Amino acid sequence: MSGIWSWFGGGSQKRKDTPKNVILDLRTQLDMLQKREQHLMRQIEEQEQIARKNVNTNKAAAKAALRRKKIHEHNLEQTLNHIATIEQQMNAIETANINQETFLAMQRASEAMKSIHGKLTPEKVEVTMDILQEHNRFNEEISQAMSSIAIGPQVDEGELEEELEALQQQDLEEKMLKTGTVPAQKLPEVANGELKGKAPAVEEDDEEAELRKLQAEMAI
């Protein structure tokens, strides 16, 4: 019973009364009371057997056994009350401890949110976003300006156009040689000019041939 009296103030406490330590003490006390419960139940059963054995042969011994049985039953009743009280206290402390830990966790979460937000306001966020967008636009303008800077020797656009036309003409002539056809609508003006220049030469050759034919006939 020393454990009970020490718990209820009969002894000095050497450990700090934290919820964890208190629960450990209660569990130790509960284990002791449960062992006492088992012992008293054995004593009650033993005294009852003695009373039954002597009920007809030795009434004085039977009465003494019953008297001891009553004392054990009274002690058992008190022990069961102590067990119920300690179990109730354990449940109450465990629940209170859970509530306290939950509250402290929520309080820490609140402090963390407060620390994260600090002096943050929707207006400040909007201003910051506007500044970021302005910086992004500025970076875009810088990129465009840098990409427009010509690096290396400058090339005459007129020369490029002439070279491009020459390549187109070369490509067209290669296609004409492969297909054997000359699409008139696709010939450039220069090509048409060259063809027109060759037509009088063909006509002159025909006239020479006809003139020589006449001279031969006259000679006959």
From TrEMBL:
<dbReference type="GO" id="GO:0005771">
    <property type="term" value="C:multivesicular body"/>
</dbReference>
<dbReference type="InterPro" id="IPR005024">
    <property type="entry name" value="Snf7_fam"/>
</dbReference>
<protein>
    <recommendedName>
        <fullName>Vacuolar-sorting protein SNF7</fullName>
    </recommendedName>
</protein>
<dbReference type="GO" id="GO:0009898">
    <property type="term" value="C:cytoplasmic side of plasma membrane"/>
</dbReference>
<dbReference type="GO" id="GO:0000815">
    <property type="term" value="C:ESCRT III complex"/>
</dbReference>
<keyword id="KW-0967">Endosome</keyword>
<dbReference type="GO" id="GO:0032511">
    <property type="term" value="P:late endosome to vacuole transport via multivesicular body sorting pathway"/>
</dbReference>
<dbReference type="Pfam" id="PF03357">
    <property type="entry name" value="Snf7"/>
</dbReference>
<dbReference type="GO" id="GO:0006900">
    <property type="term" value="P:vesicle budding from membrane"/>
</dbReference>
<comment type="similarity">
    <text>Belongs to the SNF7 family.</text>
</comment>
<feature type="coiled-coil region">
    <location>
        <begin position="23"/>
        <end position="50"/>
    </location>
</feature>
<keyword id="KW-0175">Coiled coil</keyword>
